[in-house]
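Lecture notes, part 5. Sequence design as translation. It can be helpful to think of inverse folding as translation between two languages: the language of shapes and the language of residues. The source text, in structure tokens, appears below.
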């Protein structure tokens, strides 16, 4: 029986201010266009679009940008019951610039993830108890306050027997050192039932450059299912089952949000399969297709 409880995404909603053209080194954008963003907000939207109930637990500032993000999430069918609006905090704005390699580079302003996550901690017990699964990322492990909130959520999910899904969504500029990121990503991976990461993140955590070898190494650390994506080269899984999936070719406008779309569709698909991870092959094609579709747009939510 498919659960009507939401898949709870713990993390940030931010405004992405995107330069809609690749810039050569030293280039300066002449225009920035606002799009809704934030890794876990993107995942929640993808879950909802895939037909599963989704909720975002986190926070935004009590400002015009926060109103805009919350309204957009509700329009997408994402529950904002546990999205805290914090007085005195600015909703984070992320400037996103693409180089000639078409990879995004981020600079975050108004960073208030710590205070908003601290406020969200007060409603976590209710949020987790009323959910069917928990999705987390590494951005809420950067600072000490949000790190403890994330750990609290994991403890609550464990006590309730909920599957935890982890997507590192590694952003180097948010960490002081790669080793620190590796350590905390490894901690979350070991406590998750499902780990979905790209090839670079898998190598960060395991030291293995081959996607399948890295997936197998991650599976031995605790997760029941590991999914490693490698752009146009395909997707591999390890743990409950080993599958290889090749995505359809596409012309990439922007890769921003593709991994989040994949994660959201994967989570929604696994929920429909009653969290039977051995059946993941049934949802990989949809996850890859939704990730590919996001690549044809500038914004992380399409």
């Amino acid at each position: 029986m498919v659960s009507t409880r939401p898949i709870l995404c713990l993390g940030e909603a931010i405004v992405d201010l995107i330069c809609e053209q690749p810039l050569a080194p030293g280039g300066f954008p002449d225009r920035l266009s606002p799009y809704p963003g934030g890794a876990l907000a993107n995942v929640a939207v993808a879950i909802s679009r895939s037909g599963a109930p989704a909720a975002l637990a986190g926070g935004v500032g009590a400002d015009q940008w926060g109103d805009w993000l919350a309204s957009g999430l509700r329009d997408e069918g994402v529950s904002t019951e546990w999205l805290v609006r914090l007085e005195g905090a600015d909703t984070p704005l992320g400037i996103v610039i693409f180089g000639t390699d078409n990879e995004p580079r981020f600079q975050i302003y108004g960073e208030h993830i710590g205070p908003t996550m601290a406020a969200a901690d007060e409603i976590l017990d209710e949020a987790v108890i009323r959910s069917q699964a928990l999705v987390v990322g590494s951005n809420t492990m950067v600072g000490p306050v949000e790190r403890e909130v994330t750990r609290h959520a994991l403890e609550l999910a464990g006590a309730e027997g909920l599957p935890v899904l982890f997507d590192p969504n590694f952003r180097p500029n948010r960490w002081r050192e790669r080793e620190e990121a590796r350590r905390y990503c490894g901690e979350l991976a070991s406590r998750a039932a499902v780990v979905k990461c790209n090839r670079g993140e898998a190598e960060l955590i395991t030291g293995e450059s081959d996607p399948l070898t890295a997936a197998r190494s991650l599976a031995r650390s605790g997760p029941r299912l590991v999914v490693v994506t490698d752009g146009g080269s395909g997707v591999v899984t390890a743990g409950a089952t080993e599958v290889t999936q090749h995505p359809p070719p596409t012309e990439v406008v922007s890769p921003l949000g593709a991994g989040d779309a994949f994660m959201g569709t994967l989570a929604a698909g696994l929920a429909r399969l009653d969290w039977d991870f051995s059946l993941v092959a049934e949802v990989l094609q949809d996850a890859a297709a939704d990730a590919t579709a996001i690549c044809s747009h500038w914004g992380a939510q399409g």
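The translated text above is only one of many valid answers, since several sequences can fold into similar shapes. The mean pLDDT is 92.
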